[in-house]
Write a structure and sequence with these properties.
heterodimer, A: 5 helices, about 5% strand
C-alpha cells in the first residue's frame, strides 16, 4: 500500500494544554478509577450503616475540628490553585515557581492536619466495622494527598532546573487539575466521617 | 530550547522513501541486546509478551482442568485429595480469569488498537510496559505460591467467612487477594492507554463513525475496567486488612457483614464477564467483515449495542446472589436487567448473521471459530436467561449447571473468538500464515471436545451434582456423564496441543503472508507483516470505514512529523482533526524498576503492614526516576 502525502502537519505545535495533551487524559482515567474507589468506600460505609441498628458502633463521633480545619484549608487552596493554573497557561515561569512553592506548603500543611484527623477519630480500626471503614476512608483520601503533595514537590523542584521547558507548563496545569479532584472528593467524605455519626 | 534550534528539525516529508524508513527505524527501534529487551516500549513487543504469557497461563490452568476432570471421571477416585482439589479449582478459575482471559484480550488490544487507528505507538507506552511486568510478577507470585503448597483454596471469588482470618489461617487467601491487586493495577493501566490511544491518536479523518468495531469494543471494555476493577481491589484490600491488622469489614460479631463481600466482588465480577466477552465480539466483527467480503451490516446498532452492554453490565451483579435472601423487589429488578442485556447481544448476533447472509463468506479457520462462537455463545446466553429467573436459579445454584453455563459463555464468548483472532492476525504478528489444515483440525476438535465436555454438565446440574466437590459416590448415578465430560475435556486439550503445534510449525516453516493476506479493509493491513517499529512511514488519512477497500493501491497520508525524535499525531476526539505533534516516550528501564519496587511492596504487605510504609520509599524513588526528564530529544520541548 503506497502512502501519498495529502496534508501537512509540520506547522502544528509540539505540545498543548488540557484535552490536547495525553497526560490530561491519563489524569481523567485516574479520576475515573479513584472516583470509583471513593464511591465504593462511601457505599460500604452506607451499607454498614444500614445493617447495624446503632451508629456509630460503641464509639463517640469523631472530633470534627481537625476535619473542619482541613475542609477550610482545602477550600481556600482552590484560590492559589486556580492562580497557578492561569499563570501556567500564560507560561510565566517565575509566577509558576512561586505558585508551586505555595501549593507545596499547602500540601504539607494538609498532611499535618490529616495526622490530627486520624488522632481524633475516637475509634480504632480494629475496634469494630465502623472504625474500620472510617480509617479506610480517611486513609484512602490521605493516599491521594500524599501522592499529590509528592507530585507537587517533585514538579516544584523540576521547575527550578533547566528542565523547566514550555511543555512542563502543561504538566503544572495537570497537577493543579488533580488537586481539584483531591479537594472535591474530600467534601462528601468530610460530611460522612464527621456529621453522619451525629445524625 | 537551545538543543532544538541547534540541530535541524527534519521532517518525514523532507526524505525519500528508503531514507525515511532508515531514519524512522533509527528513532523508533528497540535497542539491541538483553538490556534493550528489558526497556522496550514498542506496543507490539509488549503485546507479544502479554500474549505469550497469557497463553502459558492458559495451558497451565488447562492442565489443572484436565487433572480435575480425570479425578471426576469416575466415583471415588483417589488421584487428588480434597485439600489439593480446593487449591486446583481455585488456581484454575483465578488463572483463567485474571491471568489469561483479561490480559489475553487486552494484549490483542495493545497490539491492534494503535495499528487500527493508524498511529506509531500506544499512548503512555511506558505505563503499558510497567503493566506487563506487574502482571508477570503477579502471575508468577501466584504460581510459585501454589508450587509451595500455599496456593489459594477458597474459590476464584473467595467468599468470606471462608476466606477470612477465622477459617483460612496461613497465607493462602492472601496470595489470592494480592494477585488480584497485581493484575488489576496492570489491567487499569492498559485500559487508560487504550482509551487515550483511541480517543486522541486516531489518524486524521477517522471520525467516530469510522472507528473499527474492534477498537470500539476495546474502548468500551477499557471503561468497564476503569469502573469495575476498583471494586475487586477494594474488596481484596479490605480482606487483607481483616486478615492482617484486625479490621472487621466482614466480621458480623463486630458490625461487619459477609454479604458485603459478595456485593463488592460481583460489582466487579459481573462486568468482568463483559470485559472478557466484549473484545471477543470486536474480534468477531472484524473477522465477519473480512470473510463475508462486505462491510458490516448495522455498524451503528453494533456500536450502540457494545455501549449499551457496557452500561447494563453494571446492573446485573445481584443475580449472582439470588440465594442470599434479598428483598423480592430488588431480585425482580436484577432479573429484568439480566434478561434485558440479552437484547444488545442479540442485536450484534443478528447483524453478523445478516452480514454473512448478504456477503460471500469464505470459510477459512478464523470464520470457523466465529461460527463456533455463535453456536456456543447462543446456548450459553440462553442458559443465562434461564438462571436470570430466581426460582430456577435457586434450584441450580452451586451445581454443575452453573459450571456448564459459565464455560459456554466464557469459552464460547471469549476463547473461540480469541483463537479465531489469533488465526486471523497471526500473519500480521509474524509475517506467516498458520496452517489451514491444522486449523480445521484445531477447530473441530475444540468444538466437539468443548460440547462433549460441558453439555453433560447441564444435566449433571439438574441431577443435583454440586460444583467444587472432589469426588462423588457411585450410587449417585453421575459417572457416565462425568466420564463423557472427561473425554470431552481431553479432546479439548488435544485441540490446544494442535494449536500449539500449528503456532510452532508456522513460526518455522509457515507460508509467507504478505501485507494483507485476507484482503481485509482496516489500517493494520496497510503496513508490512510484521509492521516496522514505527508502524507506518506516514500517518494515513482515513476517508472510509474500510480504508483499504475504498482505495486499493494508495492511501492519502499526512507529512510533517519529526524524524529526529519519536512523535505521534494528536487529533481531536470527535472529528480526528490534527491538533498537536506530541513527543512519544522512548525505551526506559524505569517501568521495570518501578514494577519491581511495587512487587516488593505488594508481597511485603501480605506479611506486615509496615511493608506498605517502608515499601513505598523505593516505589516513590522509582517513580521520580521515571518522571524526571532525561535530555532525550523527546524531553526537549
Amino acid at each position: 500500500m503506497r502512502l501519498r502525502i495529502a496534508q501537512d502537519v509540520s506547522a502544528l505545535p509540539t505540545w498543548g494544554f488540557s484535552t490536547r495533551s495525553t497526560p490530561w487524559w491519563g489524569t481523567i482515567a485516574f479520576f475515573a478509577i479513584e472516583g470509583t474507589a471513593f464511591a465504593l468506600a462511601i457505599g460500604t460505609y452506607v451499607y454498614l450503616y444500614t445493617v447495624n441498628a446503632e451508629w456509630p458502633l460503641d464509639a463517640p463521633p469523631p472530633n470534627h475540628w481537625p476535619g473542619t480545619l482541613m475542609t477550610l484549608v482545602l477550600l481556600a487552596s482552590i484560590w492559589p490553585n486556580h492562580w497557578i493554573n492561569r499563570v501556567a497557561h500564560a507560561q510565566a515561569l517565575r509566577k509558576v515557581q512561586i505558585g508551586l512553592v505555595i501549593m507545596s506548603a499547602v500540601g504539607l500543611l494538609t498532611l499535618a492536619i490529616r495526622a490530627f484527623e486520624f488522632a481524633h477519630l475516637n475509634v480504632g480500626w480494629d475496634q469494630n466495622a465502623y472504625g474500620s471503614i472510617l480509617w479506610v476512608i480517611l486513609g484512602l483520601h490521605a493516599t491521594h494527598l500524599i501522592t499529590d503533595v509528592g507530585d507537587t514537590l517533585v514538579l516544584t523542584a523540576l521547575m527550578f532546573t533547566r528542565h523547566a521547558r514550555p511543555r512542563r507548563f502543561s504538566d503544572v496545569t495537570d497537577n493543579a487539575f488533580y488537586w481539584y479532584f483531591v479537594v472535591l472528593s474530600w467534601l462528601p467524605l468530610y460530611f460522612l466521617i464527621n456529621w453522619v455519626p451525629r445524625l | 530550547m537551545t538543543a532544538v534550534t541547534a540541530q535541524p528539525d527534519r521532517r518525514d516529508s523532507d526524505l525519500a522513501e528508503a531514507e525515511l524508513a532508515g531514519a524512522l527505524t533509527m528513532i523508533w527501534r528497540t535497542p539491541a541486546g538483553f538490556y534493550g529487551w528489558l526497556t522496550t516500549v514498542d506496543h507490539k513487543a509488549i503485546a507479544r509478551r502479554y500474549l505469550v504469557t497469557a497463553f502459558i497461563f492458559l495451558f497451565l490452568a488447562g492442565l489443572l482442568a484436565v487433572a480435575m476432570r480425570i479425578q471426576l471421571s469416575g466415583p471415588e477416585r483417589k488421584l487428588i485429595g480434597p485439600d489439593l482439589y480446593n487449591q486446583i479449582f481455585t488456581m484454575h478459575g483465578s488463572t483463567m480469569m485474571f491471568l489469561f482471559a483479561v490480559p489475553g484480550v487486552q494484549a490483542i488490544g495493545i497490539y491492534l488498537v494503535p495499528l487500527m487507528v493508524g498511529t506509531r505507538n500506544i499512548t503512555f507506552p511506558r505505563l503499558i510496559a510497567f503493566s506487563y511486568w506487574l502482571y508477570l510478577f503477579g502471575g508468577v507470585f501466584l504460581w510459585i505460591s501454589f508450587a509451595l503448597d500455599i496456593g489459594p483454596d477458597i474459590g476464584w471469588f473467595a467468599y468470606v467467612p471462608l476466606s477470612g482470618p477465622q477459617f483460612s489461617p496461613g497465607k493462602r487467601a492472601d496470595t489470592w487477594a494480592q494477585m488480584i491487586t497485581f493484575t488489576e493495577v496492570a489491567s487499569m493501566a492498559v485500559a487508560a492507554g487504550t482509551i487515550a490511544t483511541a480517543f486522541k491518536q486516531r489518524a486524521p479523518g477517522m471520525t467516530l463513525d469510522r472507528i473499527p468495531v474492534f477498537v470500539w469494543s476495546m474502548v468500551v471494555t477499557s471503561f468497564l475496567v476503569l469502573f469495575a476493577m476498583p471494586a475487586v481491589m477494594f474488596a481484596s484490600s479490605t480482606l487483607i486488612m481483616d486478615r492482617l491488622i484486625g479490621t472487621h469489614f466482614y466480621n458480623p460479631a463486630e458490625g461487619g457483614d459477609a454479604i458485603l463481600w459478595q456485593h463488592l466482588f460481583w460489582f466487579f465480577g459481573h462486568p468482568e464477564v463483559y470485559i472478557i466477552f466484549l473484545p471477543g465480539t470486536g474480534i468477531v466483527s472484524a473477522i465477519v467483515v473480512a470473510f463475508a467480503r462486505r462491510p458490516l451490516i448495522g455498524y451503528l446498532p453494533v456500536v450502540v449495542s457494545l455501549i449499551a452492554t457496557g452500561f447494563l453490565s453494571f446492573g446485573l451483579w445481584v443475580h449472582h446472589m439470588f440465594v442470599t435472601g434479598l428483598p423480592q423487589l430488588g431480585a425482580a429488578l436484577f432479573t429484568a436487567n439480566s434478561m434485558l442485556i440479552a437484547v444488545p447481544s442479540g442485536v450484534q448476533i443478528f447483524c453478523w448473521l445478516a452480514t454473512l447472509w448478504e456477503g460471500k463468506p469464505v470459510f477459512r479457520t478464523p470464520l470457523l471459530f466465529v461460527l463456533g462462537f455463535i453456536v456456543i455463545f447462543v446456548i450459553g446466553g440462553l442458559t443465562g436467561v434461564m438462571v436470570a429467573s430466581v426460582p430456577l436459579d435457586t434450584q441450580v445454584h452451586d451445581t454443575y449447571f452453573v459450571v456448564a453455563h459459565l464455560h459456554y459463555v466464557l469459552i464460547g464468548g471469549a476463547v473461540f473468538p480469541l483463537l479465531g483472532g489469533i488465526y486471523y492476525w497471526f500473519p500480521k504478528l509474524t509475517g506467516r500464515r498458520m496452517s489451514e489444515r491444522m486449523g480445521i483440525w484445531n477447530f473441530w476438535l475444540a468444538f466437539v471436545g468443548f460440547n462433549l465436555a460441558f453439555f453433560p454438565m447441564h444435566i449433571l446440574g439438574f441431577m443435583g451434582m454440586p460444583r467444587r466437590v472432589y469426588t462423588y459416590q457411585p450410587e449417585m448415578g453421575w459417572e457416565n456423564l462425568n466420564l463423557a465430560a472427561t473425554a470431552g475435556a481431553l479432546l479439548l486439550f488435544i485441540s490446544f496441543l494442535v494449536f500449539l503445534i500449528n503456532v510452532l510449525w508456522t513460526l518455522r516453516a509457515g507460508e509467507m503472508a504478505g501485507d494483507n493476506p485476507w484482503d481485509a479493509g482496516t489500517l493494520e493491513w496497510a503496513t508490512s507483516s510484521p509492521p516496522p517499529p514505527y508502524n507506518f512511514s506516514y500517518i494515513p488519512v482515513v476517508m472510509h470505514r474500510e480504508p483499504l477497500w475504498a482505495s486499493r493501491n494508495e492511501l492519502p497520508a499526512v507529512g510533517g512529523l519529526s524524524v529526529r525524535r519519536r512523535e505521534v499525531l494528536i487529533t481531536d476526539v470527535a472529528e480526528a482533526q490534527p491538533q498537536v505533534r506530541e513527543a512519544s516516550p522512548g525505551p526506559s528501564i524505569w517501568p521495570l524498576l518501578s514494577a519491581i519496587a511495587v512487587t516488593i511492596l505488594f508481597i511485603w504487605s501480605i506479611f506486615s503492614p509496615w511493608g506498605v510504609v517502608w515499601g513505598a520509599i523505593p516505589v516513590a524513588a522509582a517513580l521520580i526516576g521515571w518522571f524526571w526528564p532525561k535530555d532525550t530529544p523527546e524531553d526537549e520541548e
